[in-house]
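Example record for the data management plan.
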Amino acid sequence: MASIELPVALSPSIRMRIGSTSKHFCVLAAMLLCEEGKLDLDASPRTYLPELPEWAAPMTVRQLMAHTSGMRDSLDLLLQSAGPGIAVSGDFQLKLLAGLDSVNAPAGHIWNYNNGGYVLLTEIIERLSGQGFADFLQARILQPLGMHDTLLRPLDTALLPNSATLHLPRPDGGWSRGVFGAPIGGEGGIVSTVDDMLRWLNHMSDPIVGTQETWQEMRTPLTTHGYGLGLNMTAHRGLATVHHAGGVIGGSSQMLKVLEHDLDIIIMTNGRSALDLYGLVDAIIDRCIPDLPPLEEDVGGQVHDGTFYSSATGQVYSLVGIGDQQAISVAGMTLPAKRLADGTMSIAILPSDLRLRLVDDGGAPGLEAVEFGHTDRLSLVHASAAGDPSALQGIFVARSAGLSANIYEDDQSSWRVDLRGPAGGTHYHLHPLGPKLWKITPPEPGSTGGTLEIVEDGFLLTTGRTVRLHFARQDLS
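Corresponding structural encoding:
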């Protein structure tokens, strides 16, 4: 249904959000400016956005596109502190980034999916072209290809004809209207139709917008798991594919091209998680192309449980047994895992090269994690050793991010963390993980949380896209 409020069925010509599938459109827009000599991919974003702090100097525009800049993600900070559906100004994220005084990691050191980098990329395109991002997309990319139903929709609250409603599932089985809140641009703001996206996928086989060199650069993997410039290049059962998923509040999309077969797949939904679509796309490929080599199967065996923590990086992985199936919990999401013949475990549904292996850690179980070419060692932690939460009680601030945290015991004798920023606030439950290590979880299912590492003057917050943001204890005297 296009909406549960009206008897209208979805069709291939109804507009829906494509979320982060928008990212390679944004990259192509920037690459057109490169072709004109206006943009240098290997220049610092400060070249074009001089208000950015010194941390942006070592980064490159190319790294923004590839999620390897190491910068903090403004959208993650907004959603973690205020939640979805909160209205903010169009320049809110840029101002937030311009005020930060730290990064997740040195430029080029890690891969961490980062919408904030595409906030900067959108702003760069607008300044160099002299046009709004929506107008540049229409004039330079969408109209030349006849994608007349595709456009930038920054706000869910602005009514747009021929558009499906986004549906966010509620715990009681009902639905709420999905509203993102913050204006979104090149990081995920495009709406399209199945018909238009098939036109786009067909164009990708023989592009007329962007040179062959531009498209080759976009499709060149810059990471060990296949991410290039706004596009993923991976293989499914021996078939080379190019793809990108997209998730929004109340919907998602998955776009994929099987290159040697020229098989184009676009899935758009107004009520399912993006995680659901990875397996569906694979199933479509398997039905359309016969006699493929077998999938790498879960070899079975012992199911493991335990939470592991790296003092070097702050990373936390939990191994979870669900019946006789192995799962891995990371960044607030519990994902199905495969146990492989070489003794490692991998996440079954995401395009990631993460491999986990149980190892001996001084006579106790440990975990070795290899991802994006980096190896991390994690130690088993025990909730019984977490300590007294009353020692955490108080107000903490991450001043450059404009965030504060209040840790307190509520009326039900449960410990809570209220996280607040300039756009609003949200609250989390506090759970022990191990010595000086705590987990925060949101009260509503489907949202993500993070971890708090206790340090001498406060704590470090880590979420899926924020690494060790420092909160200092506020002196109220």
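Summary line stored alongside the record: Residues 115-129 form the longest helix (15 residues).
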